[in-house]
Design a protein that fits this description.
Number of strands: 9
Number of helices: 11
Helix content: 40-55%
Radius of gyration: 17 Å
């Protein structure tokens, strides 16, 4: 069954660290049901996945599956506890360099350097730490914008672009719904990898503590914004995989998350009946 949404269709990819692998399964299900984006907006890991989606929409799920196969905690968050303490003592504000994530992007984007080289309009959402406002970058250099969008406070360093010092957009817009509407979307497809389902376990390290509280703080933003948006446009809020105790720093469940999110999204889309503007699915499911 083909799902007919009014265009432009905006795909909204939320943040969630290692849980971003679940978006691969969601994209596979959407492609099988004929739902294709006209524009893409992402925050944090959603901007990493979203950039590959905007680069090659038809092959994005396969390209991302290959990328995620090589994603490990050590690659993305390099160094053990001693190296983290050394980094914190030296750099004052963060635990890990973003060099590993940059290497992942270099590999996945395969030489793509500018927003203008992408097949679809794309926005990477970050936060200006001077003004405290969300910033949706849609042009210029691609990789610095994604690194800024994924610069988790206390975990990664901020990224300076022009006069702005930028951090992870998840602080204000982990599910960048307003930004997709501002780019012209007339319907939204939300791929939220942090919720529903994935409540973090009790944190045991500083990095996990930072992500734990940040993730909890993101829940209300998604709930409030999606309900407001759904008054004007149809919003498909895809279900996540079944509830599991997986933290955003645990990269050992990639294949399981991809398979489970595909099954949940496929089942959701098979029974979906569109009736105009409204919310189909929900952040809390």
């Amino acid at each position: 069954m083909t799902i007919n949404l009014p265009g432009p269709i905006g795909f909204v990819l939320g943040g969630g660290g290692s849980l971003g692998s679940s978006q691969v399964g969601m994209l596979r299900a959407l492609a099988e049901h004929g739902v294709r984006p006209d524009l893409v907006v992402g925050t944090s890991v959603g901007s990493v996945n979203g950039s590959l989606l905007a680069l090659d929409p038809d092959k994005a799920a396969d390209r991302l599956a290959t990328l995620w196969e090589g994603m490990t905690r050590q690659r993305v968050f390099p160094g053990g506890p001693i190296a983290q303490l050394r980094s914190l003592r030296t750099n004052k504000t963060y635990l890990f360099p973003n060099t590993g994530l940059r290497d992942v992007l270099d590999e996945g984007l395969d030489g793509t350097r500018e927003f203008g080289q992408l097949s679809l309009p794309f926005g990477a959402v970050s936060v200006d730490c001077v003004t405290g406002e969300a910033v949706n970058i849609t042009e210029g250099e691609l990789i610095p914008a994604i690194l800024a969008s994924a610069a988790i406070p206390g975990v990664y360093p901020p990224v300076r672009i022009g006069e702005q010092v930028l951090y992870d957009g998840g602080v204000l817009a982990n599910v960048p719904i307003r930004q997709a509407l501002a780019m012209g979307a007339k319907s939204l497809v939300v791929l939220d990898c942090a919720f529903p389902g994935h409540l973090p376990t009790v944190p045991e390290t500083l990095a996990e503590t930072l992500l734990f509280w940040a993730t909890l703080g993101m829940r209300n933003q998604a709930v409030l914004e999606v309900e407001l948006a759904s008054r004007e446009v149809p919003v498909l809020y895809l279900p996540g995989p079944p509830v599991q105790q997986v933290t955003p720093l645990d990269f050992t469940h990639t294949q399981e998350l991809i398979a489970a999110s595909y099954e949940a999204s496929d089942a959701f889309l098979k029974v979906l009946e569109l009736k105009g503007a409204g919310l189909y699915g929900h952040p809390s499911h």
